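pinning this so it doesn't scroll away 📌
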Amino acid sequence: MISKAAILSNTCGGYLDKYRKRASFNWEKMQLFVENRHRLNIKKQVWSFFESDPLFYTSSSTLSLFDEKELTSKQLVKFLNSGLFSRIQEMDFQNRIEFYVWKVIFNETEMNMQLNLQSLKLIVLIFVKYCRGQCKPDEEFANLTFPKGFLFNVATAAYQSEGAWDVDGKGIHIWDSFTHLEPYKIIDRSNGDVASDSYYKYKEDIQNVHDLKFDMYRFSIMWARILPDGYRHRINQKGIDFYNRFIDEVLSKGKQPMVTLYHWDLPQPIEDNGGWLNPAIVQIFADYADLIFNHFGDKVKWWITVNEPMNVAAGYGTSVLAPGLDIHGVGEYLAGHNIIKAHANVFRLYERKYRIKQQGSYHFLGINHYTSVLCTTGESGRKPSWERDSDVLLYVDPSWPRTGTFWQRIVPQGFGGLLNWLKIQYDNLPTFVIENGCGTENYLEDDIRITYYKV
């Protein structure tokens, strides 16, 4: 029985709890609905509403939960326990309340008193949140502490930090070529030739990691600094020596190194032979990984194969990411297929040859999360592409706070929902947030970034 209804915000108070504060529920009209439910054709209205509302993407089988003439308490309970609500709980609905803000349950100007099912949806969703205890009072969050074993991590990527693009035997990679040959594709025409100069200032960087009391340092190894041509026939010893010094410095500060094997910087000679479009790269990548494990695996216990594989593949379906091959509708699929195979091949290599001896691990989830979006069904654009093939349109709630990055909004409830979903879906597998952050236009007075991390 629903004995009381009120707004329960996903954030349970705090920075974004404007919905609970500004909204109220007209209980008398809910009673009016109960008294007159026999006059409403619930099934027909639910069908039309589910078809039109992108939040409810379900089959007609759900409609069998409803009687033609009335919605009983037993049917409501059955509906709440259905597979549909498992899907709803994975989605964000809080910010949609801003658009509905408790619309009148009944259109009183019409004699037939048709039910506004958008409002009914909100009532039921809030009922689910309330009954399943997903929200806790604000005071329960006041003294939360991080659990034992929780690790704070900081991350960099070789091309974005090292610089030294043409020294000590390093080869050319696709981002060198992309930014040198087509600099106009970068908004400020910048590149990674110098970056933050970490190749020469890595000790200072690692000291900063130590001073900030982080537990881990995630960084990537630049493929072309180890193998200038990309292939194992020519090894650059100066590159090996640099990363040995780098890792030793991390360990000397009591930090755990987490190493990414590939962070977008494919050696140009490999790209000239097809890059990630060529199935041969599966073994080429394994040869490179084998060399890295052999030289550094006794010091490194946490490994990542490919950073953001979707964006790596996108470089073969769009012109805005290296190597910038706009073979849309084909390139990203071929590249994605080979990336998955290369990842699996390297995982098996490590399991077979190194894990027992080196005691390292790939057995964890790594999440790069910056923002969240809403989605609905529909085609995107006219060109064949994975975006169009997905039949999904992405959009944002305009009320979500902006950042200094055009595509990023502050959506903490999306991040929390993702973490909870992964915990359940993957049986509480160890999880690392390996990238997260907020871009700002002001480097010093970065109130937006402070808000991003607080919420």
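📌 and the second one:
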Amino acid sequence: MSLKSFYILDGNQFVQHGHYLSGKKRRYGYTSVRIGRNEIDNLEITLNNEYIVHEFKRGKKALQGDIFQCLHYMNLLKNKGFKVDHGVIHLLGTKNIRIIELENNLLEELYVVYDELEKLKN
């Protein structure tokens, strides 16, 4: 038995996640965009030209870093002049989603993280 058939026949979580992701990425409107050194893997552009950032995570709950990553991408798009509607974190472990809105209090937290990262660089 080959390794390939083991993973395909086993149906473990990585195969299931891959199958789930392949179905999601085929949806019309998802694209990959590079802004500077940042690459947004799953960006949905609605018919109203609003941008929705999609992040796919293997865990069962959204971690603070996952939220900041989604916020960071949304902030990049907003600063480039695009109309950002919201972000969506897809939790593959539970197949749930978490909607992230571009709110002022979350942006303030993001800017604090930017400052902390800048201090680490220096």
